[in-house]
Amino acid sequence: MPAAGLADSAVELAPGVHWVGALDPHLRNFDIILKTANGTSYNSYVVRGETGVAVIDTVKEEFADTFFARLESVARYDEISVIVLNHLEPDHSGALPELLKRAPQAKVYLSSRAQMMLKALLKPSGEKPPEYIPVTTDDEVDLGGRRLRFLHTPYLHWPDTQCTYLVEEGMLFSGDVFGCHFCDPRLFNDRVGDFRFSFEYYYAHIMRPFREYVLDAVALIEPLAIQLIAPAHGPILRHQPRDYVHRYRELATPRLFNEARSEKTLVVFYISAYGNTRRMAEALAAGAETIVGVRVSLYDLEGGESGIFTDLIEEADGLAFGSPTINGDAVKPIWDVLSSLTTVNVKGKLGAAFGSYGWSGEAVRLIEDRLRGLKLRVPVDGLRIKLVPDAGELAQCRNLGEQVARHLTGQIEQREISLAALA
Fold first, then answer.
1. Which end of the chain is more exposed for a tag (fewer CB within 10 A), N or C?
2. Helix (H, G, I), strand (E, B), or coil: what is residue 182?
3. What order do you get walking across the sheet with 228-231 strand by strand?
4. HSE (CB half, 13 Å, CA atoms) of 7?
5. Domain containing residue 314: CATH number
6. Shortest CA distance to 316 belongs to which of 342, 348, 289?
7. pLDDT exceeding 70 applies to what percent of the chain?
8. Using the 8-state DSSP alphabet, how is residue 192 labeled?
């Protein structure tokens, strides 16, 4: 559904370069996990050279008619020689099968990781995959007087993602990088409403888990002479585009200063109904602190919301979670924190679980399963104690803390717990 003022017209970014995307102002949830207070845009672009025309990304399938109407206003299908796919997620590739039917002569340029995804995308239609060319950083395609240069930027936020740089115009078609879910028919960042929250929210939920890759991508992009950034979602960044590159570097750089950089950090989260799990947490922390080179922080989840711990979790080397078992499960604040781990990179961090219980004690095993699912290492069996821990059981908690701390400092060889031990 076109927004007022845009009709079915393409929007010129520079002579021979146009936006031919679609607006989705009424979308309120994107991919289930993201809220979109004023919708989003699906940005597609056309670049015309002396000898060929390139289409960079398409739109969500439901908006294909609008996309094709805008595309037809600036190019004939028989002129299209290049289709660039920066990312194959359905919101960017939904109109691709139909575009390939209308422009069968076009060659598809995509990252090497995207090849199998392209075949899977076209499989339901029964169409034979088009001629495609896998590309990587510094590969180029010449449109005649205009060159598209590719940048390999994987995991931002899928393995297949790349950016495309129009050399002569200094335009970066960045895919999801520097994008956001913000719908405004005025399109350009110096004309739309205030989208700062949407920009930061998008980074936090889409890019933050891959911050190492963000920094790699920024290192590729910073040397470029950028005059405009054209992302796959949200405003086109023509005013001070480098500010957004700098902001990505800031967001991806660790925020917390570790006073003793040689130390390993262990964060212990717990919640306790009657004080039993709290006693276990305190004993675990005390045990871990006996190991030189480990700094321990203790947090009662009853005293804070899960979202405030994100930076702390991201910088920690080890995470321990303590929960009582209520109705055969860990309690909600624990699950809230564990759910927040999907927004940060926790792969390879050390994890542990503990808790008191009255009847069945499932919480510890459920927490361990979740930690493993998030790719944390869980080298030490979790500890379950029935009701009130006695002196001997508190000693076991201290020992658990010591063992976790020794693993953090490399004093114990890493090992995996066998599945049989969990039965």
1. C
2. coil
3. 140-142, 147-152, 162-166, 171-175, 228-231
4. 2
5. 3.40.50.360
6. 348
7. 91
8. S
Judgement on whether residues 26 and 133 belong to the same structural domain of the protein: yes
Count structural domains, the chain. 2
Higher-confidence residue of 339 and 305: namely: 339
4 inside domain: no
**Largest CA-CA distance found in the chain, in angstroms, rounded:** 82
Residue 233 lies in a domain: yes
Please determine, for residue 259, whether its predicted confidence score (pLDDT) is greater than 60. no
For residue 254, give the nearest of 302, 197, 212, 293 by alpha carbon. 212
- 142: tokens are 């010449």
Q: What are 12's strand-pairing partners?
A: 18
242 and 171 both lie in a single domain: yes
- Which of 230, 252, 274 is the last residue before a domain boundary? 252
Q: What is the pTM for the complete model shown?
A: 0.78
Domain that holds residue 384: 264-422
Residue type, 27: L
Residue 294 has pLDDT above 90, yes or no: yes
Beta bridge partners of 22: 42
Q: Please give the structure tokens belonging to residue 216.
A: 């790699």
- Are residue 205 and residue 293 in the same domain, yes or no? no
pLDDT of residue 120: 81
